[in-house]
Specification:
Length: about 475
């Protein structure tokens, strides 16, 4: 079977993680700027300075055999204030970026929201306030109007689960809260806002397709017992279904709502919203795959949520136990983990792709996949064989799934170049291209993986060393 001829081979970035220039061109603060500055954390003020380097960066992608760039638009660069006034300078910046993509034959794959909520909206309650959903709808309309001629692939939200979970429950992303009730409200509002964005897109008859990007964690169980199967269902609802079912089928998983309704207030879910969620589902699914969710039955104790992305000095052991639901298996001696406790498990992608395809029958893009490591970037070329092997095995998993009939249309390495890895700072590196953040010029240095990926993209995957599990 093999990959289609027009398969998209590219890499991904996000506005706050790469642009820098936070006070340039009329951009106003985002919730991340305020939270990081107030907390004294490392910031993305400069990041990779894509704002000033985008021509060089996009050319480098094309030279590297890539035909697509996943990027996000910064809401605080486009909408100036609570009244919704447009910052034309920000619009011009993105039009230039998109035209540069066009010039180099790079298809832009554009996320409308990758976590940088304007601070003026956070001050009104952010994602806890239903009004933010309507502000998002207006912002999305501005994006469709201003950039619709240059974009074929739109994404409403990047990873609703990850930013609401970290922001409202774990508390290590802005706004830094610790409340399951708030996470439920924020998460629901994001999914409702996504449906409003899809409605605006469909009703405006813009060209192209619109989807959502999910932090995909296919669920595996420790054994075949009934208790594990029940734990797996809880884990699947927690990790995947409330986003994928809602976005793709327009249905919030009912068994999840039943369980939540026993302990939480679900009045944020209003009857008048439901037809919008039902009728405005996505055209495709973007899956960011870093690892599986491997679970066993809940054995006791309080809910514990420790995520190893809490700052560069934090070296904890990740732990997810949800009281009454499931426990995530970590530190298994037979598994391989990164320094940030992420299990390397390409087989999970192959299996997970088949499950998603069977369940939703929508085109799929792998919108992020990569490995974060510390690297010495002072050398001429980083010899990142570990990244090559990681990508090889994951692309092989995708090709196996395609051979089994799954409609996967593109692959995006995370990330195009080294960038700001949120609370981990800039030293957790994912890029195909290295950036020396100590160098004033922020010189770009392609790593070995950049050249390897070029040969893979140019051969449309033929040069992948196929693995079968
Ligand atoms: C995804 C996000 O969760 O994973 C990216 O979409 C993020 O924004 C990436 O950077 C890797 O996670 P981290 O925490 O290592 O940067």
């Amino acid at each position: 079977m093999g990959l289609k001829k027009d398969f998209l081979w590219g890499s991904a970035t996000a506005s706050y993680q790469c642009e820098g220039a936070v006070n340039v061109g009329g951009r106003v603060p985002s919730m991340w700027d305020t939270y990081l500055h107030d907390g004294g954390y490392e910031t993305g003020d400069v990041a990779s300075d894509f704002y000033h380097h985008y021509k060089e960066d996009i050319k480098m992608m094309a030279d590297g055999g890539q035909n697509t760039l996943r990027l996000s638009l910064a809401w605080p660069r486009i909408i100036k204030n609570i009244k919704g006034e447009i910052n034309e300078e920000g619009v011009e910046f993105y039009r230039d970026v998109l035209k540069t993509c066009q010039q180099y034959g790079i298809t832009p794959f554009v996320t409308i929201y990758h976590w940088d909520l304007p601070q003026y909206l956070e001050e009104k309650g952010g994602w806890l306030n239903e009004e933010t959903c309507y502000a998002f709808e207006q912002y999305a309309k501005v994006c469709f109007e201003k950039f619709g001629d240059l974009i074929e692939y739109w994404v409403t939200f990047n990873e609703p689960k990850w930013f609401t979970f970290n922001g409202y429950m774990v508390g290590n992303y802005p706004p830094g809260h610790h409340s399951a009730q708030e996470m439920i409200i924020a998460a629901y509002h994001v999914m409702y806002a996504s449906a409003l964005g899809v409605r605006a897109f469909k009703e405006g008859h813009y060209k192209g397709m619109i989807g959502i990007v999910h932090s995909f964690g296919p669920v595996d169980g420790i054994d075949d017992t009934l208790a594990t199967k029940i734990a797996m269902r809880f884990a699947d609802n927690y990790a995947n279904n409330w986003i994928l079912d809602t976005a793709a089928k327009g249905e919030i998983p009912f068994d999840l709502l039943c369980v939540l309704s026993q302990n939480y207030d679900l009045s944020c879910i209003k009857n008048e919203h439901l037809p919008i969620i039902k009728n405005y589902t996505v055209d495709f699914l973007g899956l960011n795959y870093y690892s599986r969710v491997w679970v066993k039955p809940y054995s006791g104790g309080e809910t514990q949520l420790v995520v190893n992305n809490s700052g560069k000095d934090f070296k904890g052991e990740s732990k997810i136990v949800i009281k009454g639901w499931f426990e995530q298996i970590m530190n298994n001696p037979d598994a391989i983990y990164t320094e940030w406790d992420v299990e390397i498990y390409p087989q999970g992608l192959q299996k997970g792709l088949k499950q998603v395809w069977e369940k939703y029958h929508l085109p799929i893009f792998i919108t992020e996949n990569g490995v974060g490591v510390r690297e010495d970037i002072t050398v001429d070329q980083v010899e990142d064989d570990y990244r090559i092997s990681f990508m090889n095995d994951h692309i092989s998993a995708i090709m196996n799934a395609v051979d089994a009939g799954v409609d996967v249309r593109g692959y995006y390495a995370w990330s195009t170049f080294d960038l700001y890895s949120w609370k981990n700072g800039v030293e957790k590196r994912y890029g195909l291209v290295g950036i020396d953040f100590d160098d004033k010029e922020l010189k770009r240095k392609p790593k070995k993986s950049y050249y390897w990926y070029k040969s893979i993209a140019e051969s449309n995957g033929e040069k992948i060393q196929r693995k079968d599990w």
